[in-house]
């Protein structure tokens, strides 16, 4: 990625991302729909802009596209309806392809034994979820959910090989989308269900981003 490193701009963008994220989560808590809908499309673009402001030689080129694919998914899922939902899932899937490709390039498959161990654990979780969800999903959603969740688990597995923060980010992203899948299956909601979906999603995307930047030396010190 072209060198654009600008710590002051980056700091301002990170503050903006934090403020907008907090506003979005508060809007969910208090049911302020206009604020909720108005802030959601800004979340991932702000995070992507933060990465762009920190960009330097060695920053993975696929990180910004991964986040912008998340932005596309966020917007499409807000539209509602099956077609928009599937399109949103496709946008998120493209983001996960970016993540997996990026993490593999960063050496995520170097320790094959560890990859097999972590991958086996996620495979068990994935299989259990699909078995449980399958009977309650609409017929047209079963295969897309199974394939998308497999790709999401692949992000979690490869992220776990980058560093602890990226691994936690992948796990939180998986948890967030699992909650969305329970919506599709019409399961009983956890307390603060919508808040948990977005809080874990935002934390997941942020940790995936920070973990990647840390791996490539892209996160500045606070005194930069």
TrEMBL record:
Keyword terms of this UniProt record: Membrane, Transmembrane, Transmembrane helix
Single GO term (MF): hydrolase activity
Designated name of the protein: YhhN
Similarity section: Belongs to the TMEM86 family.
Subcellular location per the Swiss-Prot or TrEMBL entry: Membrane
Keyword Membrane applies: yes
Lineage top rank: taxon: Bacteria
Membrane topology reported for the UniProt record: Multi-pass membrane protein
Cross-referenced InterPro entries: TMEM86B-like
An example Gene Ontology CC term for this record: membrane
Membrane-spanning residues: 12-30, 79-103, 115-134, 187-208
Signal peptide residue numbers: none
